[in-house]
Specification:
Elements: E1 2-11, E2 14-23, E3 34-40, E4 45-48, H1 50-58, E5 62-63, H2 65-74
Parallel strand pairs: 1-5
Antiparallel strand pairs: 1-2, 2-3, 3-4
C-alpha cells in the first residue's frame, strides 16, 4: 500500500519536509516512489504537484493527516 507522507530534510532546527509517495512499510527517511511536493513550516511555503498527487490518490494511495491538511489548504481536496 502506498501513502502520501512527509519526509524530513534540512538542518537541525530548520526542518523542511518533502511530500512523497512511499510504501507503508518504509521508514520516514526511506526510499520514496516519487516526490510530489514540499512544505516549509517556518516560511509557510508549499509546493504541490497536483496532477501527480491526484494520480496517486486515484491509484489508492492514502494521505496522512498532515498531508491531507496541507492539501486542503492548497485546494486539492474540497
Amino acid at each position: 500500500m502506498v501513502k502520501l507522507r512527509l519526509k524530513r530534510c534540512g538542518k537541525k532546527q530548520r526542518a523542511v519536509y518533502r511530500i512523497v509517495a512511499i510504501d507503508v512499510r518504509s521508514r520516514r527517511e526511506g526510499r520514496d516512489i516519487r516526490k510530489v511536493g514540499f512544505y516549509d513550516p517556518i516560511k509557510n511555503q508549499t509546493y504541490l504537484n497536483i496532477p501527480v498527487i491526484l494520480y496517486f490518490l486515484e491509484q489508492g494511495a492514502q494521505p496522512t493527516g498532515t498531508v491531507q491538511d496541507i492539501s486542503k489548504k492548497a485546494g486539492v481536496f474540497m
